[in-house]
Amino acid sequence: MRGVSVSKPKVFSTHVLFDDPRRRLAEHFDVDYWTGEERPPRPEVLKRVAGKDALVCLLTERVDQELLDAAGPALRIVANVAVGYDNIDVSACTERSIAVTNTPGVLDETTADFTWTLLLAIARRLVEGDRLARSGEWLQWNFDLLCGTDVWGKTLGIIGLGQIGRAVARRAAGFRMRVIYYSTTRAPAEVEKELHAEYMEQDRVLEQADFVSLHVPLRADTRGLIGPAELAKMKRTAFLINTARGPVVQEAALVDALDQGRIAGAALDVFEREPLISDGLRRDNVVLAPHLGSASLETRTRMAIIAVENVIAFFNGKRPPAILNPEVLRRK
Ligand code: NAP
After folding, report:
1. Which domains can be identified in the chain, with CATH numbers?
2. Ligand 1 test: best mutation among 58, 80, 168, 184, most atoms within 8 Å of CB?
3. Comparing C-alpha atoms, which of 205, 248, 103, 207 is closest to residue 268?
4. pTM for the predicted model, two decimal places
5. Please, which pLDDT band fits residue 330 given cuts at 50, 70 and 90?
6. Which atom of ligand 1 is nearest to the CA of 219?
7. Residues lining ligand 1, judged by CB closer than 6 Å?
8. pLDDT tens across 149-189, in order?
């Protein structure tokens, strides 16, 4: 069709995403992708976001006053490709009437699967076993070789019974575990019944659980939630599993607790100063993963699609399905 060409809104995406979401973005927007293998350096993000109408970013990008200043007045929406959004200063965006969206509802099961991957790996010493098996130094089987800890029949303690915490709790039934939890808001009775989960104060969860699994968001009130006092309440035989966010745990305190044998071990997907990992965590009774919680191809694709749908809805004048600050829509 001939006529006046209307320019499409400009998007900076800090990742190439995947084919399907990329195709959808291309239909509606003029997109500038960061295509590097590594995450983009901060100066590059600040340069490339300038003059863009939308930013599609990952949890590695800090969206703060500096970035918003660099973007300038054109920026209307920041679409995070993650459910956690502690990397985004949502109030600063709201003050500037910039919409912020995340990707809830598609990664709960995948992240719960990975929580169990870590839990089972630390309990049954899988990583130590793998290391031995591939080292060429495993010369004979023995009765007491790498004996771990049973998972079945034990007590699973969940801190933060939201979407992921519930998906983790649901899986415990297959292991015939007792499930106890603490969450700021107690779950409705029917949810507790479905999950066979008992509510109790956080200290009681820490005292009674054989596996303490963290599923709180990172916010001012949860930063450093698990420190020396909390670790001291855990059983000496208990394990800490963290697939939430690194700064929820005081890493130095965790290293101290491990050094002194105050807990049996830990399995961690996230770290206080990611991707830096404290040397004190590199030990046999800690399983380490490089933030893989939602990392299945299916789920990462779905997350990218949701982020893209949020941006498309916004520019079509509709409410983005996962908007975190809907008040900005009323100001338009
Ligand atoms: P969610 O549905 O919002 O659940 C979080 C739960 O934690 C809510 O029930 C919340 O209660 C509760 N909570 C908040 N502060 C608490 C506190 N101080 N003590 C106890 N409970 C508290 O979030 P989600 O989707 O389950 O995700 C949880 C977090 O996991 C995300 O924020 C993200 O950081 C992390 N995550 C990590 C990965 C990974 O790759 N490792 C993947 C996905 C998500 P209220 O509702 O009452 O505040």
Report:
1. 10-106+297-331 (3.40.50.720), 108-288 (3.40.50.720)
2. 184
3. 248
4. 0.94
5. confident
6. 15
7. 83-84, 107-108, 111, 159-165, 182-185, 215-218, 221-222, 225, 243-245, 269-270, 291, 293-294
8. 999 999 999 999 999 999 999 999 999 999 999 999 999 99
